[in-house]
Amino acid sequence: MQPRQTEQxxxxxxxxxxxxxLDGESRRVRADxxxxxxASSADPAEAYxxxxxxxxxxxxxxxxxxAGHHLCFGRIDDAGGRTLHIGxxxxxxxxxxxxxxxxxxxxxxxxxxxxxxxxxLRRRRHLALDGRRVTRVSDEILxxxxxxxxxxxxxxxxxxxxxxxxxxxxxxxxSTLQAEQDAIIRSAHRGVTVVEGGPGTGKxxxxxxxxxxxxxxxxxxxxxxxxVLGPGTRFLDYIAEVLPSLGxxxxxxxxxxxLVADALGLPEAPAAGHELRRAAGEARxxxxxxxxxxxxxxxxxxxxxxxxxxxxxxxxxxxxxxRATAGGTGLPHNQARELFKDLVVEWVADEVQARARVFLxxxxxxxxxxxxxxxxxxxxxxxxxxxxxxxxxGGRFGHAAAVAELDPGALQAxxxxxxxxxxxxxxxxxxLVAQDVVLDLLDARPEISVPDADAPAWTAAxxxxxxxxxxxxxxxxxxxxxxxVVDEAQELTPMQWRSVLRRCPGRSMTVVGDLAQAGPxxxxxxxxxxxxxxxxxxxxxxxxxxxxxxxxxxxxVAAPLLARIAPDQAPARAVRNGDVPRRVAAASDELVDAVVxxxxxxxxxxxxxxxxxxxxxxxxxxxxxxxxxxRVRVVPVSQVRGLExxxxxxxxxxxxxxxxxxxxxDLYVALTRPTRTLVVVG
Length: 682
Ligand SMILES: Nc1ncnc2c1ncn2[C@@H]1O[C@H](COP(=O)(O)OP(=O)(O)OP(=O)(O)O)[C@@H](O)[C@H]1O
Known about the structure:
Blueprint: H1 3-38, H2 44-67, E1 72-78, E2 83-87, E3 91-93, E4 96-101, H3 108-112, E5 121-130, E6 133-141, H4 157-163, H5 179-185, E7 192-197, H6 203-217, H7 219-224, E8 226-230, H8 233-239, H9 242-245, E9 252-255, H10 256-264, H11 274-280, H12 284-295, E10 303-307, E11 310-314, H13 316-328, H14 333-370, H15 376-379, H16 381-386, H17 398-405, H18 408-416, H19 419-428, H20 434-443, H21 463-474, E12 483-486, H22 494-501, E13 509-513, H23 527-531, H24 533-538, E14 540-544, E15 546-547, H25 552-565, E16 573-574, E17 582-584, H26 591-605, E18 611-615, H27 620-627, E19 633-636, E20 645-651, H28 653-659, H29 663-671, E21 674-681
Parallel strand pairs: 2-4, 7-13, 7-14, 8-9, 8-12, 12-13, 15-16, 17-21, 18-19, 18-20, 20-21
Antiparallel strand pairs: 1-2, 1-5, 3-4, 5-6, 10-11
Helix pairs in contact: 1-2, 5-6, 10-21, 12-20, 12-21, 13-14, 14-17, 14-18, 20-21, 21-22, 25-29, 26-27, 28-29
Bound molecules: adenosine-5'-triphosphate (ATP).
């Protein structure tokens, strides 16, 4: 038998044993889960323990289900001949660790060892499986020794993975993660990790595998959940299968816009043009909204309340003090209003009591005069004492008793319910709703206004403003996350960042993006622009340098553009070579025909290939119409960030660069989408 076959059948035996173990554990977990679900207890502590157990077993059940697909994909052998198999979950037989979870520390050398730093390994082995059958074994020798009879050295699985035809859905790449990617995924850093890198360097891959790692390793991520944010629904569909295939089904996925719309209970808002998005996304609008809200908080003047028909007035000084106290708590506006009202009530109650005291003292005097000097207190002392009143130092009960009857608590409670007082407070410090606050702001900013203030047609661009206002009025969002992953992070406006950050109070985040690909709504040129100087300073910034998507030839076509739009950025290094991209000249009236011809040729040449046309947004409809009903996708350049295809036709590059500001960045994004074939028509 060939070494390849011998090794393959030895691995097959091992893999069979792993699957037997997996099946056994799945059966056991399911039985335990049934038991745990059936058990009921009236004791709250026991009921809680049971719930925790059900949650734990459910998670394990899911992990085991997902792990069944390509259960084991690697093995590492150290110089002493010890071996470890690496896979999607850990499996053991008593003390024997049969399979190591890829996230475990012991699996690190599988990803991190190189010939320069073998980390004690002699060999790294990749296993390819088809169902439960081992279809291939391939080895890398890391310690510089010659391959022996048991080594199967050949083409790397990475090359095979990245050369494979795309399906339109991203897959997990847990079996071929590269060292520079793995170092970020496994980082123990709990704050903000920023991952930058050119197109196709695996930023999305890193972000998603990091989410899975963080879920397993960080307690706060497990308890408060993980959120993945992407630039649009097309992109979210594209990445939807990666985390479930890693056994993680509980990760929330959304766009920054949908996140806010859901939180505020608003319907999906229509997309906005980049000018509106940019204008409505400026950071200073947060200050302006805060000023709008402050403007409603007891503006200077006096506050008059009618109590039993008598006016009681808080003068400017008293009002300013109440405003300063309520405002100074830092509470959101609507909660601070309650405190403001309490202060007004207290003030008014004091005033009413002071007036009563004066009035009663006067009454005592009048009675004494009327009764010819008879001291009423003295005369009624016995009765008053029986009623529980104590005389003051001068032996007087009179107004002390009467004022005591004006129980301050009861008086305040009564005032708090008083309609006239409530009306006066509402005029000074009204309850506010977010939409009204934003409409107030828009009065002063016609460039971001909505047409009809009575039925405002909010667009996605306004959502972060509404979210900001909601925060100012009612405080932090109810739903927060233990870890937030932001993909295509260069696309978020400063106001969107504020929405995202307020949902991640722990600031445990993975932020991935490429500033050279920034669209016109943000045009961020530094991470400090994007994240704010403070957070950017504390962030752990990593750079990916190797392009796994496309060929060296395609990167070469994009290189002059990169030099113009991001002169400081070193181009990524491609690991593959391929065909030289083609340029097809076409006059503007022939353009659509030429695009149809070229895509037709590509689709015919690769019947299973994923073929796309990328065009300026305004040109999409015409091209799609001319193409008719084909499997070729026509994608507007504004929505193509993060996506990839086997073959791409870029239609009318000048049209793309001229369509909107920063058009060269759009073109750069378009040119870097293919995994293999690029045709530029124009
Ligand atoms: N270690 C890897 N093994 C196999 N495939 C990989 C690996 N790293 C990246 N890839 C593949 O390379 C392609 C590009 O990866 P990804 O989309 O994560 O790049 P990106 O940096 O996010 O790109 P962009 O900037 O265009 O959004 C994907 O098909 C991905 O699956």
